[in-house]
Amino acid sequence: MFEFDEDTEKILEITEVFLVRYFGQTEAGAHALLRRLLSEYAERIDADFIHHESAFGMALVAHYLLVEGGELGSLREWSRKAGYQSPPAEALEYFRANYFLRASP
């Protein structure tokens, strides 16, 4: 259904981890929520969007649009009010270790 390159798929995999860790989803729920986001917003979400938002941003987008019932145009305002202006340090470290360093010896 969704075809992305290996790097984009890795970002989506980490997005699912963040949906569980930071937004209260189960593993199955995170997977379903992300697939639903990609399906419902297929005309707006492509590989460039995914790379721009990165994993925490994609988790935030999925949570806001599909759990909170928000509108795309209000995402940045909501995220500031909700305290999500930047990813937690642990999320950045997890991303670094599992995305950038994954091919390191």
Unreliable stretches (pLDDT < 50, length at least 5) are none
The average pLDDT is: 94
Structural class: mainly alpha
Rg value: 13 Å
Number of helices: 5
Order of helices and strands: HHHHH
Could you tell me how far the N terminus lies from the C terminus, measured between alpha carbons in angstroms?
33 Å
How many domain units? 1
Largest sheet: none
What's the count of strands? 0
Helix content percent band: 55-70%
Shape: globular
Q: Strand portion, in percent?
A: under 5%
Characterize the structure shown.
This protein has 105 residues and is mainly α. It has one domain. The chain contains five helices and no strands. The longest helix has 21 residues. The radius of gyration is 13 Å and the shape is globular.
Overview features:
69% helix, 105 residues
Layout of SSEs?
Elements lengths: L5 H18 L3 H14 L6 H21 L7 H7 L7 H12 L5
Write a compact overview of the structure shown:
The protein has about 100 residues and is mainly alpha-helical. It has helices at about 5-25, 25-40, 45-65, 75-80, 90-100. The mean pLDDT is about 95.
